[in-house]
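[job 0412] stage=fold_complex status=start
inputs:
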Amino acid sequence: MDTLLLSRIQFGANISFHILFPTITIALGWVLLFFKLRFNKTGDQKWMDAYMFWVKIFALSFAMGVVSGITMSFQFGTNWPGFMETVGNVAGPLLAYEIMTAFFLEAVFLGIMLFGASRVKNWVHTLATFLVAFGTTMSTFWIIVLNSWMHTPQGFEVIDGVVHATNWMEIIFNPSMPYRFVHMMLASGLTVAFLIAGISALRMLWGDRGEAVKSTLRFGIITGAVLIPLQILAGDMHGLNTLEYQPAKVAAMEGNWETQSNVPLVLFAVPNQETRSNDFEISIPNGASLILTHKADGVVPGLNDFVGEDGEILHPRVAPVFYAFRIMIGTGVAMLLLSWGGAFLLRRYGAGEMPKLPLLAFTAMSFSGWIATLAGWYTTEIGRQPWLVQGVLTTKDAVSDVPASMVLSTLIGYLAIYAVLIVAYIGVITYLARKATKGEPFSNRRYPRRGEVNIATLQPGE
Amino acid sequence: MDLFGDPAVWLPWTFAALMGLSILIYVVLDGFDLGVGLLMPLANDDEKDRLVASIGPFWDANETWLVLAVGLLLVAFPPAHGAILTALYLPVFVMLIGLILRGVSFEMRAKAPLSQKAAWNGAFFAGSLMASLSQGFMLGMYIMGLTWTLPHVGFAVLTAVFLTVGYSFIGAAWLIWKTDGDLQQHAVRWAKGGIWGLILGIGAISLATPFVSFRIFEKWFSWPEIGYLSPLPILSLALVGYLWWKLRRLPFVDDRWAWTPFAAATGLFVLAYGGLAYSFYPYVVPEQITIYDAASAPESLMIILVGTLFVLPAIAGYTVLSYFIFRGKATELRYD
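[job 0412] stage=fold_complex status=done
writing structure:
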């Protein structure tokens, strides 16, 4: 394998590992704020128990996200020097704003949020929780701006092969940014909803019947049931946006080779790039035309339009995009069925009497958000190939000339440590769930209700 | 230099200064975090928890200065970013793995089953060690002009060891400030054991740098520069002397002066760093690319600078707030 492919695999491995954790912390920050506000309002201990359990998972996920994120900022330089040299004038300010408006905010207030509860007034702690959640969302915003600009670049001019910004409003609010941002925020919300529902279900299977776990199960199921139809709608709109700006990607997603009308919706196939056709295709007539153009005889672009006259292929490899897209959709459908089924059972039985089978199903789906998120990112990122910045810079022009053996050896190193960490991460979450089930108290501290003075926080000598 | 004349002149200069400041803040702040990690094997089990507690609320934000520094290098000097990081591909890899291990073990050691705690403590130490060694190695390679020859690598190995011991020293100085009782006395002992790393490190770099290039030699050893620059080595020597003298007397009753070793160590880092910055200016890649050659377009730098002017004071403000909230001796880390 050559440096280009190995570098792509390495960056893919790092960014895949990284995105797992922000996907959790982005939404979990807001969920923790919700738990905290519910406690402030009701004074009900179950909300503080829920907060104390999930804040641990938040802290762990946050640390994993931070350290894996640092890797990326260095890899721009070690593996992709051509990226910043060509589009640095656009990417640079966006990354700088992410660091300055988001990273410091969340990192500093995380310390206060995690360890400051006994040292600051309650409202300061609530504010710190808000600022951490706000920081993660700001971070999402800036990085999505950069990422979507790489898909749908505008607001720039090229002078001597280097991109110069001409209009920052056009750069920030580039055509795919709103769709991508909403899609990612909802993905994070769903990931957390199913994680909370899944871990709560696991605790109930282990015999936990506490008020906190019932509330979090209810919270997870209802949040999932509300967000999934919104996500399907947002995903559809994002797809239409992609059709307009990156038709080659949509052609690969649909497995459609010829530009034509009445394109079927391919449910399953083995795309064959040699024969430029699908093997073993199972499809619904007119389906893709209906979804993408809302007309049975609508014209859908085909992959053969993206082959140069000299035979150079200007569309992504079809199979990874095609399969990743189906995995994402399949996971989304499973989420829809399970969360709506779960919501129905909640109404029928209540959280405390939920039957065993759906609890098992929710446990099995605990990390389904990760699968859908990764599959979605693979669809859009591999779908952009051979471009790194659509129409501006190809991936192979950005790669460094580091020897392939060096990329390979470091790749093996990263993969080994990521494998250990992911096992340890899931292991610790289940261990914490087990501990919580046994009823070990999260906190011996008594929390003041609103308006109550907390005498215990006044330490002797202060 | 006409400061508000040609933006193609003063913008690169400003960004070089900002980047230099971020690296300096990182080296001091994460220096003590990493140093505390390096001291882990010397501490007993109870002390280990307090070691971690002393940096618990801060390490994450401290590490962010590294992200800002590399971010500024990336955004302000893209060609230099590529040149430096591809030349340092392997040490960067080692540092990243180290930072990953350190950050994750920090959480894991407290949350994983007790039976795994020793392993995560080990990983915490190993991560801190990998990050410190590789940073020292990169410093040495950078001074030697980023070329991989045997003498250069040898020098980089030396700086790797010295910076690591230097970090353990500033870590111990931090612990003298933030702990009390037996642990504080241990920290004084560790500081005495680590001060040679700082002295040899600063000494080796000071001796080697002028001989790397004639340009740097000229900058230091010509009149009147040598007069203006003389406070740097004199102050450094004074601080070393002060530390030597103070460490033999600490701790005092009432915990007086417990903060001074950390302050003096910070002073030493600042002075050494100032000397380095003076040597290498205006080059961002030593003797190859100046900050003016490597700078991004002025329009892009300007839009970052405007943001920086608003955001940096805010960052400074809430960072100070955080250190104020967690002032005093380090206590057990609790979420409630």
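[job 0412] summary: Chain A touches chain B through 74 residues (CB under 8 Å).
[job 0412] exit 0
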